[in-house]
Amino acid sequence: xxxxxxxxxxxxxxxxxxxxxxxxxxxxxxxxxxxxxxxxxxxxxxxxxxxxxxxxxxxxxxxxxxxxxxxxxxxxxxxxxxxxxxxxxxxxxxxxxxxxxxxxxxxxxxxxxxxxxxxxxxxxxxxxxxxxxxxxxxxxxxxxxxxxxxxxxxxxxxxxxxxxxxxxxxxxxxxxxxxxxxxxxxxxxxxxx
Length: 193
What we know:
By secondary structure, the chain is an alpha+beta fold. It has helices at 34-41, 45-53, 75-89, 94-106, 109-112, 130-138, 148-160, 178-191; strands at residues 30-33, 72-73, 116-119, 124-127, 144-147, 164-166, 172-173. A four-stranded antiparallel beta sheet has the order 2-1-6-7. α1 (34-41) crosses α3 (75-89) and α3 packs antiparallel against α4. The longest helix is centred in the middle third of the chain and has 15 residues, at 75-89. It is globular and about 60 Å long. It starts with 29 loop residues before the first strand and ends with a helix.
């Protein structure tokens, strides 16, 4: 399809911008158990389990180690889970999704924020610049796109309201709740601060 190769392809310079998730801390320092990963990605626990067992998307922090063990997913993992869900929902073949997952997993986190994935249903293409996107569109085929930066923002917002744990210590990190900020303001007002 034109000069933009289907994934996998070498990462390209372009619109990629360095974006770090805001909120509770650096994304590489927090892990999310299965229920939180599912909620943020919009998938069922059955899908999460199946994708982990078949190697489609495995947790990068802590895989399941037997009965009763808890998988622990990083921010990058949850981002990939949500993109896989969107690709499946649009009818992209599993073979193309596996190729896209390999490319997404090998990309640096900052590179992902400026990436757009385009698909014609048969193949997935990585576009990092408006020129690459225009080149794909000139081919005259029907395409749909996923702006990874927008998915990033969705995942980040969802994870902020879900429990996490520190990767280094295993210490639970409570979810942020807007009501908590209101409660803090009331406490300060009651104390006259």
